[in-house]
Write a structure and sequence with these properties.
There is one protein chain. α2 (29-36) crosses α3. The N and C termini lie far apart (34 Å). It contains 5 helices and no strands. With 90 residues, the protein is mainly alpha-helical. Helices cover 54% and strands 0% of the residues.
């Protein structure tokens, strides 16, 4: 990405990563809450924390940050498959 705004990665918790992954697929906060069986308010708080940690201002900028740092994989874009152990031996 051309933007120099996202110069450092942020450390996100496992739950924050889970929410970021769902957010990146286009789900609303309510849909994320229903999928994770938590309240929408909890999702709102997690997303607010994620935006603060990543120094992003909105969901679009957050997804761009996540793509840049390899935190999400969208439609086989930005995906890195690790070689299997059999491939490593050959």
């Amino acid at each position: 990405m051309a933007s120099g705004k996202f110069e450092t990665p942020a450390s996100l918790s496992g739950r924050e990563m889970e929410i970021l992954d769902l957010l990146s697929t286009g789900l609303t906060n309510l849909e994320i809450a229903e999928k994770l069986d938590i309240s929408k308010r909890t999702v709102d708080n997690h997303i607010s924390n994620i935006l603060t940690k990543t120094k992003t201002e909105n969901r679009v900028e957050l997804v761009r940050w996540a793509l840049q740092w390899g935190k999400v994989c969208l439609n086989d874009v930005n995906c890195c498959l690790l070689p299997s152990s059999s491939e490593m031996l050959s």
